[in-house]
From TrEMBL:
Biased composition (Basic and acidic residues): 9-23
Protein's name in the database: GCFC2 factor
UniProt-recorded Gene Ontology molecular function terms: DNA binding
Cellular component, GO, one term: nucleus
Subcellular localization, as worded in the UniProt entry: Nucleus
Main localisation: nucleus
Record Pfam families: GCFC
UniProt organism field: Copsychus sechellarum
Length: 136
């Protein structure tokens, strides 16, 4: 476009050589915007740590919650089945998992794989236990 050509000519005249073709200068963030982003991100992370502060561990730890459902299934299989728990669990666990994923960034160099996260392993163990009990 005409604007892009004008910006490129201006860069060439001013000697800016660190521009990468395909990246628009409109999309580049100023240091102030970067600082504001980091402050905002830090505030969100700080707030997210407080979400379950006043909740008993049995009701905000995914592994503990799934253990309660496992006990229910073993002790009262008929009512467990009648309550369609397998359909309810994703909705129940969704907010807990989202809080744990707030800081997760797959674009960072040293990010944790989803399969390595504690909540993922807890769900995997629960699913394995369900499959074993169903095969019995």
């Amino acid at each position: 476009s005409k604007c892009r050509t004008c910006r490129r000519q201006a860069r060439e005249q001013s000697g800016e050589g660190d521009h990468h073709e395909g990246l628009s200068s409109d999309e580049e963030l100023t240091p102030t915007e970067v600082d504001e982003f980091h402050k905002s991100k830090d505030n969100v992370l700080e707030d997210s740590r407080k979400i379950f502060e006043d909740v008993h561990a049995d009701f905000c730890d995914i592994r503990m919650i799934l253990l309660k459902f496992q006990e229910w299934k073993e002790k009262f299989p008929d009512s467990y089945c009648d309550a369609y728990i397998s359909f309810c669990l994703p909705k129940l666990l969704n907010p807990l998992i989202r809080v744990q994923l707030i800081s997760w960034n797959p674009l960072e160099q040293n990010f944790t794989e989803l399969e390595e996260m504690p909540w993922f392993r807890a769900i995997e163990e629960f699913s394995d236990a369900e499959n074993v009990s169903e095969s019995k």
